[in-house]
Amino acid sequence: MKKNLSRKELIYIASMLFGLFFGAGNLIFPIYMGQLAGTKLLTSAIGFLITGVGLPLLGVTAIGISRSDGLIELSGKVGKGYSVFFTCALYLTIGPLFAIPRCATVPFTVGAAPLLGNADPKIALVLFSTAFFAAVLGFSLFPGKILTYVGKILNPIFLVFLSVLILTALIFPKGSPASAPVGNYASMPFMTGFLEGYNTMDALASLAFGIVVVTVIRDLGITEPADVARNTVKAGAFSCIIMSVIYFAVAYVGSVNACEGAQNGGDVFAFVANRYFGRAGAPILAAIVTFACLKTAVGLVTSCSETFVKLFPKLFGYKTWAVIFSIVSFLIANMGLTAIITYAVPILMFLYPPAITLILLGIFGKYFSNSKYVYGFVTGFTLFAAAFDFLGALPESVISAIGAEGVINLSLKVLPFTSMGLGWIVPAVVGLVIGLIVKAVKK
Questions:
Q1: 97, 118, 144, 310: least surrounded by Cβ within 10 Å?
Q2: What is the C-alpha to C-alpha distance for residues 195 and 346, in angstroms, rounded to an integer?
Q3: Tell me: the pLDDT tens digits for 51-74?
Q4: For the stretch 289-308, what's the b/e string if a residue is b when 16 or more beta carbons lie within 10 angstroms of its beta carbon?
Q5: Whole-prediction pTM value?
Q6: Which of 285, 303, 335 is the last residue of a domain?
Q7: What is the largest CA-CA distance in the chain?
């Protein structure tokens, strides 16, 4: 019986996992972080890598070590009702409501729009997103070939284009030296980088992509749960090493190429591409972001569709879900990149805390016998605190409209670390202590 992946298989799966992770946010957020962090790049990058790389690795590890088939089973340790709620909320967030639409709007805004001249941007976005989601759906209708499509075709093409741009910028520097840090990067660079890593959505995605990795490993002939877990962790570690190197290289390029007036990472990327390649920079950048986002969108549609088939087996089949998610993503994508990012942040502030605690509980579950009491109390207390983080991250106009200022100010006074976006930590620890006590009493 086969126990380990061959070196070639491990490389392909790591490439596939990296390809699934590395999409829109993985390009625009680190280069913009480098631009704003300046001389505090190293400190900021360490914080960013913890949430942008460390947490995704732990997420894949949690799926492997807990021997779960995916998020449904892992979150089911809290309770069946919670499993349905959290799984739906997470997959819809990293799927058709935010992450998949962003996969279309980023390549359009960064890569395609600069090439269109005076064309109507709204009509152009509709045409671009139509072609983009037609390609996504075409790949997604055949989930059994995702290793081939992403790991062997789309990801290598993306890496070639990205390497051309990044290596040229590193080997033949033309930019200005690292500038003084801006805003929160000056006062608390580590925590600012840490929270910026949330925007990649990769920790959430790791819980979603776990089922894809486990399925591919089983398809390659490894069936024993312990062997599947071990190879899942190995593939995840290999993938995250690649991500760390590329993140830091991209952030460094952003830190030494000062782009005045840049509003986001897309502006910085466009500036760097033009600086080093002139007119050729725009099509190179368009290819980079399009292939980056296409492969991630394929992975997200595939994993979302497979999960919703498991959640609601009598409702629709896999291909119907794939079509539905592609159409919804297309419609939301045409709202524009700014709107998507604005409304994604509060949702991420709410989902990340219970996702992080679920990952940690999954990894260390054997030490408390995967007690439902521990899972339940930790998750309940974490969700309560995460609700305040959600309110605090809403646009100011929304906060005023719902009259949430008093609740937000109270949470800042009562919950430690709330001002840093980490108000859930102390409640989670309290929930852990209570859960362990209840477990001991019940035993």
A1: 118
A2: 12
A3: 888 888 888 778 777 777 678 888
A4: bbbbbbbbbbbbbbbbbbbb
A5: 0.79
A6: 335
A7: 71
